[in-house]
Design a protein that fits this description.
By secondary structure, this protein is an alpha+beta fold. The protein has a single domain, classed as Cytochrome p450. Helix content is about 55%, strand content about 10%. The strands form four sheets. It has a five-stranded mixed sheet, sandwiched between helices. β6 and β7 form a beta hairpin. α1 runs antiparallel to α2, α11 packs antiparallel against α12 and α12 packs parallel to α18. The protein is globular. The chain starts with about 25 loop residues before the first helix and ends with a strand. The structure holds protoporphyrin IX containing FE. The site of protoporphyrin IX containing FE has 25 residues, from α12 and α18.
């Protein structure tokens, strides 16, 4: 007889762990919930510090499973991604965003990604460097105009305008400056999405709340803008047909029901514009705040910009040479990852880090806490761009740093976001110094993205 045990002789044993992760009691979590409304980041950080890398949080009718080890992030986002679909917040955000690439699942997601992916190919993005440089130069001119008299500039607002303009030109080949209301409408849609995410429920659309009225108006406004852009492009096709609008027109034309085609077009464009402008605008706002706090770092960025660019506009080739500026952007996104939380829901039961995750469980991966995990980062709260120098970054767990997510749902716009943030930071810092206005504390506000709460008023000074 061989030494291999017979399956008949050994009774089947369920090898899956029975243990659920530790966590606060329901009563303690109720207290946390009220704190959570005020400071979600502090709650996530303190829960991770108190209970470790796997935490169970019974929140109201739900139990959240919060995993905070890079191995856990790898498991959920990549190794076993098929078991996880987009979770709580994003499901509720669907009423605001529709079924665009960020919130869709399965076959619909696959076909959307296939339609849009070519627009984001590195070669095509590289061709956009000139457009981004032009928009950055216009921004510098606008900021300079505010220098005289020490007028305060809301840098968050300025970055939002800039990134919307860049997206319009790079993705849609369209000028969004013509639509005055677009920034405000995105703000209202975002407020509604975040409200539904945080209340863990969908508020009936007919309730006559002021926020809902603003949301309905904003949605109608965005529908109108998107329909206008699509009609314009259909009437005047672009030369190479490789922008997002042209591709979407082509793919939604194949839809049997024209109303479905129109809705798909709208969902996709609103999603891309929202996902693409807020994230990069937040990164740049935090970058200007951190450079103001760290003048020596700011000086190095300026020296590099002068050395690499002289007084000409940046091109794609310069990106590799703006190495220190890139490290600064990477460090900014470590401390303030624009997408601070990645919510997922388990389809089937699973095991993560030796703990049981029941089918249907809400699972959270939090880039904000991962990026400050003390086992993977020295002095995690310190701003230190040198962490991203090749010798110090070598050997670091790849999933300790996930500003663009990971796995199949990895950010489609990551090259565009990095190119834009680097080019804009180098261009502005080469010519201007932005300093924070006294009396305006700078605090993070975790909305759909991690924003600077209440804006970022700064004064502008030319470098002579
Ligand atoms: C600094 C800039 C950016 C950051 C930090 C960022 C971050 C992220 C992250 C973390 C995800 C994954 C979300 C998840 O797994 O649930 C994501 C997805 C996405 N991002 Fe970005 N993003 C940035 C810029 C952009 C830009 C410029 C665009 C372009 C329009 C864009 C469009 C998208 C889209 C459409 C998705 C969904 C992809 C999919 O599920 O297939 N992002 N982004």
């Amino acid at each position: 007889m061989s030494g291999v045990p017979s399956h008949d002789a050994v009774p089947a044993v369920d090898a899956r762990p029975r243990r659920l992760p530790p966590g606060p009691s329901r009563a303690m979590t109720a207290q946390l919930l009220s704190r959570m409304a005020r400071d979600r980041l502090a709650v996530m950080s303190s829960v991770a510090a108190a209970y470790g890398d796997a935490v169970r949080l019974p929140l109201g009718p739900k139990t959240l499973f919060f995993f905070n080890h890079p191995d856990h992030a790898k498991h959920v986002l990549t190794d076993n991604h098929a078991n996880y679909h987009k979770g709580i917040g994003l499901v509720h955000a669907r009423r605001a965003l529709g079924d665009g690439l960020l919130t869709s699942e399965g076959e619909l997601w696959r076909s959307q990604r296939k339609t849009i992916q070519p627009v984001f190919q590195a070669k095509r993005i590289a061709r956009q460097a000139g457009v981004i440089a032009e928009e950055a130069a216009k921004l510098v001119a606008r900021l300079r105009a505010r220098e005289a008299g020490g007028v305060l500039v809301d840098v968050r607002e300025a970055m939002t305008g800039l990134t919307l303009g860049v997206l319009g030109r790079t993705l849609l080949d369209a000028d969004l400056d013509a639509f005055d209301s677009i920034g405000e409408s995105f703000e209202a849609v975002q407020n509604q999405a975040i409200f539904e995410m945080m209340s863990l429920s969908t508020v009936p659309a007919w309730l006559p709340l002021a926020r809902q009225r603003r949301f309905r108006r904003a949605r109608a406004d965005l529908d109108h803008i998107v329909a206008h852009l699509a009609a314009e492009r259909a009437a005047h096709p672009s030369e190479d047909g490789d922008d997002v609008l042209s591709r979407l027109i082509e793919s939604t034309r194949r839809e049997k029901d024209p109303a479905t085609g129109r809705r798909r077009m709208r969902d996709e464009l609103v999603t891309l514009l929202l996902a693409g402008h807020e994230t990069t605008a937040s990164t740049l706002s935090w970058a200007f705040h951190l450079l103001d706090e760290h003048p020596l770092v700011q000086e190095r960025v300026r020296e590099e910009a002068v050395e690499v660019l002289g007084d000409r506009s940046p091109t794609m080739e310069d990106l590799h040479r703006l190495r220190y500026t890139t490290m600064v952007i990477e460090e900014v996104m470590r401390l303030y990852p624009p997408v601070w939380i990645l919510p997922r829901a388990a389809r089937e039961s699973d095991e993560i880090g030796g703990f049981r995750v029941p089918a249907g469980a809400d699972v959270l991966i939090c880039p904000y806490t991962l990026h400050r995990h003390p086992a993977f980062w020295d002095a995690p709260d310190r701003f230190d761009p040198e962490r991203f120098a090749p010798d110090r970054a070598a050997g670091r767990h790849r999933y300790a740093y996930v500003p663009f997510g990971a796995g199949p749902r990895f950010c489609i716009g990551n090259s565009l976001g990095m190119l834009e943030a680097t080019v804009v930071l180098a261009t502005v810092v080469r010519e201007l110094r932005l300093t924070k206005a006294p009396g305006y504390p700078v605090r993070p506000e975790p909305m759909l993205t991690l924003r600077v709460r209440g804006g970022l008023p700064m004064t502008v000074h030319s470098i002579v």
